[in-house]
Every structure is written in C-alpha cells, then in structure tokens.
Write a structure and sequence with these properties.
Blueprint: E1 4-6, E2 18-23, E3 33-34, E4 37-38, H1 44-47, E5 51-61, E6 64-67, E7 82-86, E8 92-93, E9 96-102, E10 111-116, E11 118-119, E12 122-131, E13 134-139, E14 145-147, E15 150-154, E16 164-169, E17 176-178, E18 181-183, E19 190-192, E20 200-202, E21 205-207
Parallel strand pairs: 8-11, 9-12, 10-13, 12-14, 12-15, 13-16, 14-17, 15-18, 16-19, 17-20, 18-21
Antiparallel strand pairs: 1-6, 2-5, 2-7, 3-4, 5-6
C-alpha cells in the first residue's frame, strides 16, 4: 500500500521515470521451479527475482522516492528488495493501434503484436488471426489497455508457447485487458508470467480452447 520508499542512492531517480521494485524469491510464495526445472527467464537475476512491479516516479525528496501506484506486495528486508530506474525516454507512451486486422498465411511471425516498455498505450478494435506463438506479448509495461478486440485461430499447433492470446509478462503492472473475444486458441487465452502484477482481466469471452 505504500507510495514512497527510501533507497540507498536516488541519483538515477527523476520525476516521470519508471522504477522496477523487486526482491529475491522466498521459495514458498514465489518458487521459480517447475516441471521443466528452474525458470531462469521468470524475473531478474536468472529468475531469482520474480516478485515485483513497475511504477512511475512522481516525486523525489533526497533518498525518498514517491510513485503513482501503491505497492501490491509487502517487501521483506531479508529478501533484499531493490529499485531499478529506467529513463522515461526509453518507454513508448500515449501510442495506440485501432481498427486494424493482422493476419499471416503461414507461421512466419511468432508475435503479431509486441508491446515492450510501453505506458499509457492501447489496442482497440484490433483483430489478430492466424496466431503462431502469441497474438499479443506485453513485457515490462505499465498502465496500458487492450480492449474491444478479437484474437483467434492458431496455425502451428498448440501447447507451450503456441497459440497464446494475450501474455502479460516481465513485471508488467496495472494493465487492463477488457471486453475482448478469444476463440480457437490454446488454453493460454490470457496469461501472466515473469512477475506481472496488479493487472485486470475483465469481461472477456473465450470459446473453443
């Protein structure tokens, strides 16, 4: 619930920049080990830092840094929380795609839409058909919207990394996926991974998994 933290060194913090807050896995609530072994890409430091979130810095006062979204998690000193800053210019902001259809005859493009390092961006009334790996892949992004769109038809089999709808990944936070239709895709119609937190998936329709 906090909106301010104290850091050891705030020299890279400035209003409008983005900040990732994460901590080491506790091995209980957060365990990166699965049926295929350790997930080394599920978070920072070879998968050892998976719990976290991205926020926008709203004020800096000495070593105190304030931000726009309250913390979703309670961070524990024993798990060595860290704050990592990214300049605002490294993010794409206030850009949208609307009223567009994306398709492919053969499985040549693995991710038809990739939203990486985006904030305040959106997809609306977009149709994505003939999906190879993922229709939409969102990574390291904050406060975006995907709405009123249609994702359908896998073309290269199903299972791991095939035929996904919307995957919200790598600490992406406070994004909204609402009022979309997912049809004839893998079981991964809508998924989160890699420490994604505080995202809302609401009023979506899914058919024929």
């Amino acid at each position: 619930g906090s909106t301010t933290i104290t850091v050891d060194d705030a020299q890279y913090a400035e209003v409008g920049c983005l900040m990732l807050i994460d901590q080491l896995n506790d091995g209980d609530f957060v365990d990166p080990n699965g049926v295929e072994g350790k997930c080394t890409y599920c978070g920072r430091e070879n998968g050892d830092r998976t719990l976290g979130q991205i926020v926008e810095v709203s004020a800096v006062n000495g070593n105190q840094v304030s931000f726009n979204i309250p913390l979703y998690w309670t961070y524990t000193p024993a798990l060595e929380p860290q704050a990592t800053f990214a300049e605002a210019r490294t993010f794409v902001r206030w850009s949208g795609v609307e009223n567009l259809t994306l398709t492919q005859p053969d499985p040549s493009v693995t991710y038809l839409i990739e939203m990486q390092a985006t904030q305040y961006c959106w997809l609306r009334n977009v149709e994505v058909e003939r999906v190879d790996w993922r229709a939409v892949w969102m990574l390291q992004s904050l406060q975006n919207e995907i709405r009123d769109s249609y994702f359908h038809e896998s073309i290269n089999g199903y299972g791991r990394s095939h035929g996904y709808g919307v995957l919200v990944d790598m600490f992406s936070s406070a994004n909204l996926v609402e009022n979309n239709i997912f049809r004839t895709l893998d079981g991964g119609f809508m998924m989160t991974a890699g420490g994604a937190a505080g995202n809302v998936f609401g009023y979506n329709y899914m058919e024929d998994s």
